[in-house]
Amino acid sequence: MARDRVCVVIGAGDATGGAIARRFAREGFTAVVTRRSADKLQHLVAEIVKEGGKVHPFGSDARDEAEVEKLFRQVETEIGDIEVFVFNIGGNVRFDIRDTTARVYRKVWEMTAFAGFLTAREAAKAMVPRGRGTMIFTGATASLRGGRGFSAFAGGKHAVRALAQSMARELGPQNIHVAHVVIDGAIDTEWIKANFPERYNAGPDAILAPDDIAEAYWQLHRQKRSAWTFEMDLRPWKESW
């Protein structure tokens, strides 16, 4: 009996992560979506089911090794084969360096670098024995350069990029496609709408649409291995150059 093809989205929020889960579900994947609180996944689950897709929500803290190991073990045992893994946890906070507490810096590092490591490690354990899979990490402008007030965020995102680079070198020869996507711009979310109304209302295609980001992730997964992309940057058409 054929097992389900599974797409795991760690950090399936209301924008990018949710759009990615919906996109893969439309292609016949069973979406496994996670957030720290499973209650926050109810709307996404309802959307996927309404579109005829299959989905399993999990409340799981990606910073907790035991929880992460349990999650991946349960998915592989009870749901299907993990063929796609997406790490989509953000961690975007802004504090001047003198106001950045040790607690803030550590928490952002745990949410980005450490959680990325834990979840990607478990995904690799599932994929390598089968000799196939796609792993995509969501990056940001801060993955490439630190900005004023973003020392914690940039540190975490730089680390995730380095993790992805190392894994691509290690796992590529084992037929695992590892990619890092730099989201270089504002995304169409309620948070951007509330906090940056001038950017949100700047006209068509002035900010990134989650569904269009998700389409790029799907195309990454479909690439032939003779021409795999490691790093892709996505930015809105209307931006300051």
Spell out the blueprint of helices and strands.
Layout: E1 4-10, H1 16-26, E2 30-35, H2 42-50, E3 54-59, H3 65-79, E4 80-87, H4 102-127, E5 133-140, H5 151-171, E6 176-183, H6 190-195, H7 197-200, H8 210-222, E7 231-234
Parallel strand pairs: 1-2, 1-4, 2-3, 4-5, 5-6, 6-7
Helix pairs in contact: 1-8, 3-4, 4-5
How would you characterize the overall build of this protein?
The protein has helices spanning 16-26, 42-50, 65-79, 102-127, 151-171, 190-195, 197-200, 210-222, and strands at residues 4-10, 30-35, 54-59, 80-87, 133-140, 176-183, 231-234. It has 241 residues and is an alpha/beta fold. Helix 1 (16-26) crosses helix 8 (210-222) and helix 4 (102-127) runs parallel beside helix 5 (151-171). The chain is globular.
Short précis:
It is built from eight helices and seven strands. 44% of the residues lie in helices and 20% in strands.
Key terms for this structure?
alpha/beta
Individual helix count = 8
Share in helix: 40-55%
Strand content: 15-25%
Q: Mean pLDDT across all residues, rounded? A: 94
Major β-sheet profile: 7 strands, parallel
Order of helices and strands: EHEHEHEHEHEHHHE
The computed structural class is alpha/beta
- The number of strands is 7
User: What gyration radius follows from the Cα positions, in whole Å?
Assistant: 17 Å
Oligomer: single chain
